[in-house]
Request: fold
Amino acid sequence: MKKYLIALDQGTTSSRAVLFDLQGRMIAQYGMEFPQIYPKPGWVEHDPAAILSTQRESLRLLVAQTKIDPQEIAAIGIANQRETAVLWDKQTGEPVYHAIVWQCRRTAPIVEKLVADGMKEYIRSVTGLIADAYFAGTKLKWLLDLPGVRERAQRGELCFGTIDTFLAWNLLEGHPHITDAANASRTMLMDLRTLQWDETLLNALEIPRSVLPEIVENARFMGALRKEILGVPVPVCAMCGDQQSSLFGQACCRPGMMKNTYGTGCFLLMNTGTTPVVSRSGLLTTVAWRAQGQTHYALEGSVFVGGAVVQWLRDEMGLIASAQESEAVALSIPDNGGVYLVPAFTGLGAPHWDMYARGTVVGLTRGTGRAHLVRAALESIAQQSADLIDAMADDCGFRPHALRADGGACANGFLMQFQADLLGLTVERPPVIETTARGAAMMAGMAAGVLTYDEIMNHWQCERAFVPQMEAKARDALRGEWRRAVARAKGWEAREGDEMPSSS
Reply:
């Protein structure tokens, strides 16, 4: 009898395996971190071998420690960090280079050339995306431009993929070269309506069609897990980009429902139903998921540095010993003391889309202390998310009454209350905040026939609702000062060919 669902949640800083029952309740998880590689300012890389080994071992150790029978697993779903690009040899599986991470800005000059060549509006209309280095397509071009690589690709020797594709190729029997519709919509190479690779964009980026995977539905039988991993060929029945998976895991299955994930970055998605909505405010139109022959779309806003700013406080600045400590430090003072931190370490995402913005702290005085910087960092997560929700309200013509929150940073009570206050909306936190994993598991369960849409909706619960308490005047003042700080962070990094201003 099938009792369990498992999600492989391959994230930006760790790989995890998460065990659920058929009602979507989390039973156990096991995770392993892997190194972050920063070769140059603004460049971010991962070792694909480290991604694969940590993901495979986390699954093995989860099953071993929980002592479940692998034959009782109904299905496995894969959720992954999106836009991170890998190119590998289709015979040996050896990557030609490190994985280029979604945060990486090295391909900004490629984007600028696309814009100069008149492709900006075409990209927007066909893919639903903004011309930006965030997406995987320009990363693939950068990899192909390495010495000798394009020639190998043209000979049909290489496979490209985002992390879903890389994991499927390595973990499933027969090395399937596939990607799901949600991940494909993040490459800046797929037509949003036909769900096919767009030849005009492939030509513009000099990408041979042969390196690209087949685009498939999110919820379907992808293949059997290689038998040597768990001893039995467990079916893998879902793949989905982490944020779309989180939208599904939050049971936002009806148009107008909205969630925000507070992870390494922050990602706000609103379900817009089966029709793509074109944003006027700098948001992205993306595939939410394709299942049972129907494509569901979403509006999305992305914050590049969300919870990662807390890691920065801990690891680079030494201002806190742990992420959990940040809440108590922030609450030790009554307000931010006029200090605003804009964590544009790798540029600004939606709705600003400034590849050349950089991190900025303003409002420092002689009385500024450690607590003010910690509080300003936490407030910056909520402020950036508020920018997204304001833009989404402009696009949709209404402001939802509630926001469903998930991700590791939503465990921070100060952050959640400040977010509710800043928005004037109720923020709902579920008992299982790892909704990315939950979504992949539930989607796999649906494809395996052990769950329905209605059951997934009914299983969702609210653990705590954060109700706004701040007066509108105070809220407006905080938002106004934040906008002033963002204006000072924009355009800081010199563009290629620009001269830095003289210090004299």
The CA atoms of residues 107 and 133 lie 5 Å apart. The first helix runs from residue 48 to 66.
